[in-house]
Amino acid sequence: MGARLQTRSQKIFNRIMYTAGIQTDQRNPSRVPEKTSLPDNSSPAYAKQPAGKPRIPVIFWLLLTISLSLVIGTVLLSNDMKHLRAVGHYFGFDLFPPEVKPQPPEALPRPAPPAIYKLPLHATEAPMAETASAFLRTWRISGPAMCAALRQAGVQTSEWAAASFNADTFECFYEHSAKRGKDQLANSIFVIVRGDAAGTISSMRVKVVDPGTDQNGQLDPAILRIFETMLRQPQWLDFHETLNAIKNLKDVKEDGFGASIAFTHEVLNPDRYNFTLSLDATSGPQKRARNYFSGRTWLPAPEPAIAANRTQPELPRQEPPAENRD
C-alpha cells in the first residue's frame, strides 16, 4: 500500500515539475532548459527521443524548379518574344539584331525601241505575170577561152575571129576529113564555136561522120575528148548523163534553164551524128532575166585577183595639237 502511494505521489511530482518547466520556457525563451535526469529506476525503453525538423523531399524541389522554368519561359516567349526583348534591352543585350536587307538590284537600262524597217512595195505586192522572171544559165567561159581549151585537148581550131559571111558573128572552127574507102563514108569531124565580138558564146556544134569505135562499140577516146571539153568548160554539172550517152553513141536531148543539148544521128545516114549545145532565152521570163542582167546595163565587175591586191590609199597624217605634243 505504501509503495502505491509513493508511486502515485512521484507521478504527481513529475507532472508538476514538467508543467513548471514549460511555464519557465515561455517566460524565458532564451534560457536553455536544463537537462533532467531520469530516475535511476527508469529504463531506456521509456526514454523519449528528441523531436527533429521535418525534411522536404528532393523531388519536390525538382518539380518546383521545372514548373517555375516553364512559367518563366512561357512569359518570355509569349507575344512574339516581346518580354524577352524587353529584358535583353534592359540589361544592354541585343538578343535579336535587325536583319540586314540586301540592296535591291540596279534597274536594267531601258531597251532601245525596235528599229523600223520599211519594205519596198514589190516585196509585199502580189507578183505580176508580165514582170516575172526565171532562172537562166550563163556561160562561165568566153569564146576565145573555149577555142584555146579545145586546142589544148588536141583539136587544132582557128583563132577567134569574125565570120566571113557576117562581121557581127565571131567564131573558131576545126575540120578534118579522111579518105573515103570503097563503099564507105569518109571519116570526118567538124567543130565550130560561135558568138559575138564581146566573146559571149551563142552555140557550139560538132558533126561526126563514121566515127571510130572500139571493140565494145564505144566512141574513139580522141573524138570523145572533144565532147568532154565542151561539156566541162561551161561548168554545168547537171548534164553528166549526156556524156555517157555520147560515149555509147546513143541519142540524147536535155533542156534546162535556157540551155539545150542534143546528140542525135541522121535518119537517112545512121553513121552521121550531130551535136549541138546552145544557150538562148526562149520564154518571156527568161528573156526578161537576160535583159536585166545584160552587160549593157551593169558595169563590169573587177577581176578577183585585182580586187584582192588593190591597196587602200593612205590618209594624210595629221599633226597632234600643240598642247598634246608634250
Automatic annotation (TrEMBL):
InterPro entries: DUF6030. Pfam families: DUF6030. Keywords: Membrane, Transmembrane, Transmembrane helix. It comes from the Bacteria. Residues 24-51, 301-326 are annotated as: Disordered. The chain crosses the membrane at residues 58-77. This is Exopolysaccharide production protein. It comes from Rhizobium etli.
